[in-house]
Structure formats: C-alpha cells, structure tokens
Amino acid sequence: MDGRPDLRNDTARKILDAADELLAEVGLDGVSARSVATRAGVNNALVFYHFKSMRGLVERVLERYYEGQLAALEAATGAADEPLRARLHRVVDAYLDFMEAHRRFPRLVQGLTAMGPELHDLLRGHLAPLLRWAERALADVAPPEGPLAARHLFITFSGVITTWFTQGPLLAPLWGDDPEGPAALAERRAHVRWVVDALLAGLAREEPAGT
Predict the structure, then answer these.
(1) pTM, two decimal places
(2) What's the pLDDT tens digit per position in 77-98?
(3) Which residue of 15, 49, 162, 198 sits 20 to 30 Å from the alpha carbon of 208, by its own alpha carbon?
C-alpha cells in the first residue's frame, strides 16, 4: 500500500462516510475525530489507525470525490471523430449526473475554500488533473491561451453546473418549487445543453472583440 487507507475495509469506509457527512453539516472546524467515530459507530482510535490524522481523513474525503469526478468526465469524453456537439452534451450530462449523485461535494468544496488558504494547496492539487483533462477534451475548439482557452471554458461550465447545487437550498422559496427535484433538474440540464450550443454557435460565427 502507499500509505492510504484500504477502502475495501468496512470500518475505513464507515469512517470516511461519517467524515463526509459531518464536513457537509458542520464544516471543518466542527469536525473532530470523536465526532467522526461517534457517527461511524467505531472506536475513536480507529480514525487515526486508518487515516493517521484528521488532515489525512479530510484529504481522503476530497480525493474520493475528485477522482470520481475525473473518472466520470474521462469516460464521457468519447472519440475525437465524434461530432463536437454530441461529445460536449455527453460531458455536461456526465458532470450533472455526478453532481446530482454527490450533492454534498460542491458545497463541501465551497465551504473549505472559503475557510482560507489552509487547504488551498490540496484543492489545487485535485483541480490540476481536471484542468489538464479539459485542455485535452477541448483541444479541437479551444486555443491554448486567451479568453477562449480551455481553462476559461472549464471554469465557465463548472460554475454553470455547480452553482445550481450550492445555491439550490436558497432558491426554493424564490422559485416556488424544489430546484433540486427531478423536474427542475431536467430543466437545468436542458439549459446547460443550450449554453453549450450557444457557445459553439458563437465560436463558429466570430471571434470575440479584442482578439
């Protein structure tokens, strides 16, 4: 092993799941080894046995999310000879599917980012593979630099998708329905696909001013 816990171990998985839930509920400052152990129904010492430290536990929570997200996007990328519109629709669908299945993830990252620089290096380390994936996936539409570079497009679509899930709890009283319910999520998916089509149409029509 490389020092990481074996998540095939039932106890290690219970601890990781408990930490995931608590980080979303009370934030990093409110989570302790004792609270995680209590939620997981295990002895306090087992948190350190499997994860060495609370920092190591938080790292594994984030790692599981980011590795899953990257795997989902890579699986959706498709062949280079497939029409670009179809490829991008499938990618945004995979992104939305992942966020729907892991709704704590964007809120967790938002909360950890807002806490300050303590975990920023860790978060950057996980963002780097996603940005490299975006550069490969968008190589036939995005220049390496400038306002249409893959890094901008990745952040644009990331924001379009993740903001829906971070602000969802605020929207229900304003929208009059459940923004995280099936009908609203289907409508949001259609909107994100429309954004993809509008972006591709704009790229085909003209370059933005100033280029």
Answers:
(1) 0.88
(2) 877 778 888 989 999 999 999 9
(3) 162
